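Continued from yesterday's entry.
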Amino acid sequence: MKGEEWYQTDEVAQEYDAKRFSRGGRLIDRREKRAVLEALNPLEDRKVLEIACGTGRFTVMLAERGADIVGLDISSAMMTQGREKARAAGVADHIEFLRGDAARLPFPDDHFDTVFAMRFFHLADTPAKFLAEMCRVSKGQVFFDTFNDRSTRVLYNWLLPMGSRLYGREEVERLIDGAGLTLADASHDFVLPYGFYRKIPNRLAGAFRSVDTAVGDTPLGTHLASVSYWNAHV
């Protein structure tokens, strides 16, 4: 995985949310959470596995809505932040945080109703293997996002120290088919890359987002979207 050592440090874990989801990044956080809720609802009494749960911002949100959820991550430091969030929200008894490898999930076949991963596949060195494992342990739904190769993310990617893996729609569809999944639906968003929003004040983000959304609702915007959400079924 790209950036694996960097990602596991205590310093990065402690600053992760503040660096990515403050300023205009608040808008990104809201949009990603809405995408997850729209795809995974209803959640009451569902068994959910989150791959690369990080600091638990999705994990805790889903537990608050009735899911029994396992959050798996390679970083103990990140999950420490997640456990603190879960205790503060009063949902620690609905979440198990587990350190593990997404390429070798420690669960039997068909163990979860839903398996999902956000901000994971752009770091994946073997995406087919990861997606196959997600499919194996899910008896229903697999949901994930990708960063796209026909977007402004390509320009932004040059500035990143470790880069990101970018995907085209045909590649994702091949991955889904190869894992034995059926694509139920997909949505595409953010003509402007995430990094742009994180650099501007929150008070300006809404105005840029309005333009972004207007362009994104056109065929050209769909083509240029930097992020895609993929909802597949076993």
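--- second protein ---
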Amino acid sequence: MNKLEGAWRLLAWLRTTSKGDVSYPLGEDASGLLVYTSSAKMMVQMAAAHRLPLATSDPLGGSAEEQATAYSTSLAYFGSYKVAEGNVIHIIDRSSFPNWSETEQVRPYELRGDELILRTPPSHTGGITVVNKITWIRDKGPVGA
């Protein structure tokens, strides 16, 4: 068993910029689940708390505005992974953010006991550098399970 294998619950997704701005892209009370399997498969889903329901029972329905709000308050993808030189590499099959489908996303990581910290490599837009820090805690499941 590798040290990342298992389920992880989101503690925080923190975004910092070179200008000193700090934000929580899905809010300070976002939730999520990250799973690494023994067969090198992975999946992640994160969502803002208190998301508004759509005015439809069709999971693919709703107005364009409702869909945009729902899309912008969650992130999910699945694929496989590998660990190399202090990085976990997510080899993404499909993502709710289509630009990541069929890509590899490198995440430098730190493992401190039951806490896992993933970072994005610095990205540069308009002269500003952005780094995301996503902190997870190992999910040990329900007591007595």
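The longest strand covers residues 6-17. The chain has one domain: 6-50+67-138. Will compare against the first tomorrow.
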